[in-house]
Amino acid sequence: MSHSVLLSRLKLRHLSLLQGIKRWGTLTRVAIEMGISQPAVTKALSEAEDICGGMLFVRTGRGLVATRLGELAIAKAELILQELEVWGAQIQAVQHGYADRLRIGAMPYVSVELLTQAVQLLYSRHGIASSITQLTSNFLVQALTKRELDCVIGRATALTGLEGVSYEILYEQQVALIAHQQVVRRLQHRQISLADFVDMQWILPSEQTPVGRKIAEMFHKANLTLPVPVVETYDPGIILRMLRHNERLLAIVPLDLAHDLERRGGAGIVPLAFDWNLPAISLIRRTDSKLPSSEELFAQILRELSAAQIWSV
């Protein structure tokens, strides 16, 4: 199959058709979703198979299933459609006076101060608009590999077994115990240990997360039973709102996030020392990113802010 044949015969409708068949598995449903007749869908599939030089799907009891040639065609179709979506967003950004638009993924435990200053500087220095998606690192990295995001600020532990992505460490992340401000004031000049808080109520992340695993290890090493949390969450907003209204609640969060929450009022950092850190916060990108790019400009800003540790100022 020559490059010229693909350029002259392959149309966007063929790409949308392939994506639709993968999603729905039946030509009837694809026709409904595309707003065309089923004979038109059948014809378009026949054209796509003729262009690719073989069958793309076989009929089974579960609907249409892609052949090896079909899997290749679908993968390329999705890649092209995703790039077109990005291109459309960039065109819209430029039409509105921006230089570009960057799609950023950030895990909830990334400092709000860092993220806010970074996107503000990205715009003020370079005129680049941005969108921010907040999920756990595992989900964000999956979105990055699918080209749904341009870069991710998260933990490189999510990259295990993945190819086509790279990372650079931005900063090491320490941990802190936080509580209602009144509790923090009462504890300021006391000698305290983890055992002093076993009867308190806790907000904890899932044990499936890096923080959750570290917390479980900490209680085990101290020969203490891991508390059953009142709420299991890593959402900073929920943690802060609950701490503001309950003096018996405690939470363990990254130190940079603890400073963020302290500035917002209602919670403070309990003077309990920890002998462990969390996995570092890293900037994660696809290895096919072409430099110089908006991602690299954003990376330069993140390096600058991380070196200054602006969240602790």
From TrEMBL:
Record SUPFAM superfamilies: Periplasmic binding protein-like II, Winged helix' DNA-binding domain
Segments forming domain HTH lysR-type: 10-67
Entry keyword set: DNA-binding, Transcription, Transcription regulation
PROSITE patterns in UniProt: HTH_LYSR (PS50931)
Family: Belongs to the LysR transcriptional regulatory family.
Name the UniProt record assigns to this protein: LysR family transcriptional regulator
